[in-house]
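Hi support team,

I submitted a single chain yesterday and got back a structure, but I'm not sure I'm reading the token output correctly. Could someone confirm the output below corresponds to the sequence I sent? I've pasted both exactly as they appear in my results page.

Thanks,
R.
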Amino acid sequence: MENYGNIVEKINETFMKGDTEGFLSYCNEDLKWTMVGETTVIGKDAVREFMAQMEGCEPPAFGVDAMAVDSDNVAAHGSMTMKDESGKETEYRYCDFYRFHNGLVSELTSYIVKTSKGEESDASN
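Hi R., thanks for writing in. Yes, this is the structure output for that exact sequence:
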């Protein structure tokens, strides 16, 4: 069995290419994807419809700062930039939690927070 961390890296590549079918090839039919505070989509067809809303938009660019793999779970966090409809680039921080079942993603929970350019958390404040 392939390391789930490697699969998440491949999934990230599909997102940066805007490759919905590539992403879905790593997912179970009954995938549940929760974008916390936004929406939850269940099933590959619902994910296709959700991602079709972004057709014509430039795919996000992002990097993984850290990843943790534990049994059937993977957590990854980092920074991401996306352009809005007007082409303005916006920066975000994200954390994704993946749960695997039978070698495929069964649940994905995404936390995405908009940040200012260059903003980093500073615990001393």
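A quick pointer for reading it: The helical segments are 4-17, 20-24, 44-52. Let us know if anything else looks off.

Best,
Support desk
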